Amino acid sequence: MEDTNIELILLDLDGTLLNLESEVSATNKKVIKKLMQQGYKVAIATGRHYKEAKRVTSDIDNLVYITTNGSYVEDAAGQEIFSATLEMDSLLSVIDILEKESNLEYALFTTEEVLVKDQHQFLKRIVNSVQSPFKNLPSEEKEKIIVNNELGKPLQTETDLKDYVCDKESAIHKILILGEVEELPRINDEIAANVGTGIEVTSSGPDNLEINAADISKGRALDLLTQYLEIPLEQTIAFGDSANDLELLETAQTAVAMKNSELEELKEKADIIAPTNVNDGVAKVLTELLDIKIKY
User: Are residues 77 and 220 in the same domain?
Assistant: First the structure.
């Protein structure tokens, strides 16, 4: 199963590279570092904010970052490769729709921070989300995580987000919407009907929607990155588990879906089904595919 043509490895974070504690396991870390020592290039490809992505991978040097679903890309030296923000008209139209909904939280992602109306309520949504590793903790433990922001999110509170982005002319890379699973399809339909073609809507889980500028995806970012690095797409492999990984897996030469993915469409596109994220699926596929000798 050895494939010596691969030069660039792309890794989603949540549900893929990260375990249930939102950490890169020792095994995954060891394999990634070994591959980079041998000359492979590794890029994180995530819907997370750039600072969050850097934080959870801080002890792995020389990574490339595709963040906020491909709207911001940075090379291993920290140089910006690509940045795409939402048009102001589209952004304000989405905010108007969201402000009419009382049973959701949303956040606006800039390059530097995540803007929210109520930090406590936003973090509460995350801690109790379908995919959260903390959702079954006792309420007092969850409250501690929320109050201390132990999730490490770079949050800035602004009570009126619409006024804020208008006054500051803020460049917004992504809108993250957190809501009830049964309500989000209706909200998605309303956004599609009223905002038009200036946005791209995807998801990284059943209780969220993620909105970027039109034509933005991890797949497009991969295409741009290979041109920048002068690596053919034919020499790429990508790992993912969610809807926002679909175009990434479609674009890469070798597509790897995680066994823990609940998205059958993603698995159907995959060339390989990796073991789950809690069983070091990334490391196991890469060590076999690239014939890496690792002592665990």
Answer: yes
Residues 137 and 106 in one domain: yes
What is the three-state SS of the chain? CCCCCCCEEEECHHHHHECCCCCECHHHHHHHHHHHHCCCEEEEECCCCHHHHHHHCCCCCCCEEEEHHHCEEECCCCCEEEECCCCHHHHHHHHHHHHCCCCCEEEEECCCCEEECCHHHHHHHHHCCCCCCCCCCCHHHHHHHHHCCCCCCCEEECCCHHHHHHHHCCCCCEEEEECCCCCHHHHHHHHHHHHCCCEEEECCCCCEEEEEECCCCHHHHHHHHHHHHCCCHHHEEEEECCHHHHHHHHHCCEEEEECCCCCHHHHHHCCEEECCHHHCHHHHHHHHHCCCCCCC
Higher pLDDT residue, 3 or 57? Answer: 57
| 112 pLDDT higher than 90 | no
> 42: domain range?
8-83+216-289
